[in-house]
Amino acid sequence: MTPFTYARARDAGDAVRLVALADASYLGGGTNLVDLMRETVARPAALVDVTGLSSAIEARPDGSILIGAAARNTAVAEHHAVRQRFPLLSRAIVSGASAQIRNMATVGGNILQRTRCTYFYDNEGSRCNKREPGQGCDAIGGFNRMHAVLGASSACIATHPSDMCVALAALGAIVHLQGAGGARSLPLTGLHRLPEDHPERDTELAPGELITAIELPPLPFATRSAYRKVRDRSSYAFALVSVAAALDVDGGIVRDVRLALGGVAHKPWRAWKAEGTLKGQPASIDSFRAAAAAELADATAQSGNGFKIGLAQRTMVAVLQGLAGREDQP
Ligand SMILES: Cc1cc2nc3c(=O)[nH]c(=O)nc-3n(C[C@H](O)[C@H](O)[C@H](O)COP(=O)(O)OP(=O)(O)OC[C@H]3O[C@@H](n4cnc5c(N)ncnc54)[C@H](O)[C@@H]3O)c2cc1C
Ligand code: SF4
Q: Is the pLDDT confidence value at 299 over 90?
């Protein structure tokens, strides 16, 4: 591991100031960053610990929830208002990692965790454009069972690994930021990037920008929502495919729907095409199949991951059917 200094930020302004002083990284729970430092994939000269910043979870009367970026994953998943208003978020978080890791991991760190592409972590033996721009990508034509089928480029086919972010994408979460130039906000769906020619850039964040909070806008029909994760073993594994969904059915017709996919792209994938296809249609298996097919129409397979295209569609249909089937329950 490369030597580094450590400082603990007192507040958001202090964190932004400290990170600008050196080639520094923010430190949340460290469950991803410290692994990357051990592998020398990340070599920050300084760590600015932001776990002392806001971890408050504020359930507002209008139905929204504001969550401080230092809130631990477990605290968010277990919060009564999150479970009541946005159950898919709670389920997405609990489906990830292990209880110990979720106890350490923060919301900010979860959003900015890096891909689990094994070639990215193999600093000694593999070529990786995300780690070393221009080097090449050993996943293309290599072991790419876990890799992207939507939005990939000839430079990188990695996926974003977070479960939590898939639920946040479906919910239209807003990310609040603080940088040297002041505060701003971005929709979560606009925070992460597709790889294009610059896979070394995971997000649209400016250097040194700090995530201070996420906001979940009111979405009354999200009380009927689900998160389903398909993986190679039943715990402690990243998603092959995951689906976050909320469904609003009125008189057998889909009045509104939110859908996002995980495990399929370089970013949490909001299924805008499927949503557009479904709205106003009967809440039937034929409509669900048509919506899933529309979303995956542009999918492209690598040598080892073609199964994901059908799997994503079947998982979307199954989740929507489950939600529609609960229509008459109180
Ligand atoms: C064995 C294992 C299994 C896992 N399985 C899953 C899984 O199934 N599903 C899943 O979703 N995740 C999984 N994870 C990943 C885990 O969720 C992440 O490691 C965790 O969420 C990262 O949070 P952290 O606070 O520890 O981030 P850190 O490791 O501290 O930081 C991660 C990144 O975020 C940056 N950062 C942290 N906070 C901020 C902030 N406020 N503003 C700006 N930048 C910030 C850091 O600089 C760093 O670049 C797994 C991890 C492990 C080790
Ligand atoms: S898929 Fe992306 S992260 Fe993986 S080796 Fe290729 S460039 Fe690197």
A: yes
Contact 113, 262 (CB under 8 A): no
The alpha carbon of 278 and the centre of ligand 1 are apart by a number of angstroms equal to 34
Ligand 2: does its nearest atom lie under 6 Å from the Cβ of 128? yes
What's this model's pTM, rounded to 2 decimal places?
Answer: 0.98
**Which ligand 1 atom is the nearest neighbour of the CA of 162?**
11
Q: How far is the CA of 276 from the centre of ligand 1 (A)?
A: 32
Q: In b/e form, how buried is each residue of 22-39, taking b as 16+ CB within 10 angstroms?
A: eebbbbbbbbbbeebbee
pLDDT confidence of 327, banded at 50, 70, 90?
A: very low
Which residue in 116, 109, 97 sits closest to 158, CA to CA? 116
110, 118 Cβ separation under 8 angstroms: no
- Would you say the CB of residue 152 lies under 6 angstroms from ligand 2? no
Among the bound ligands, name the one nearest to the CA of residue 70.
Answer: 1
State the average pLDDT over residues 16-23. 94
Q: What is the pLDDT of residues 54-103, one digit of tens each?
A: 999 999 999 999 999 999 999 999 999 999 999 999 999 999 999 999 99
Given a cut of 60, whether residue 326 has pLDDT beyond it is: no
Domain boundaries, given as residue ranges, for the chain? 5-51, 225-323
Q: Are 65 and 59 in contact (CB under 8 A)?
A: yes
Distance from Cα 232 to the centre of ligand 1, integer Å = 21
Task: Give the DSSP H/E element, type plus range, for residue 255.
Answer: strand 253-262
Fold of 225-323: Enolase-like; domain 1 (3.30.390)
Ligand 2 atom closest to the CA of 152, numbered from 1: 1
Q: Mind listing the pLDDT tens digit for each residue in 120-137?
A: 999 999 999 999 999 999
Residue nearest to atom 2 of ligand 2 (CA): 156
CATH 3.30.230.70 fits 5-51, yes or no: no
205 pLDDT above the threshold of 50:
yes
Stretch (H or E) spanning 186: strand 182-187
